[in-house]
């Protein structure tokens, strides 16, 4: 059963979505019936690499900004 949540403020919908996703993750991850296919694992691996690169880029930029600020003092 799908419930329409459009009446909720956006922040409440995000909060509820986070709770539902976390619950689904925990139930799936710790179930003895949890399975993941090779294709799903490869897809996840690619997205983890992309996320890692994005984090690296953001951190590198922020470190450069902080370094620049420190040299100006």
Distance between the termini: 60 Å
The sequence of SSEs as H and E is HH
Largest sheet: none
Low confidence ranges: none
Care to count the β-strands?
A: 0
Pairing-aware structural class of the strands and helices?
Answer: mainly alpha
Strand content: under 5%
What does this molecule look like?
It contains two helices and no strands. By secondary structure, it is mainly α.
A few lines on this structure:
The protein is mainly α. The chain has 2 helices and no strands.
Give the arrangement of secondary structure elements.
Elements: H1 10-29, H2 38-72
Keywords:
mainly alpha; 75% helix; flat
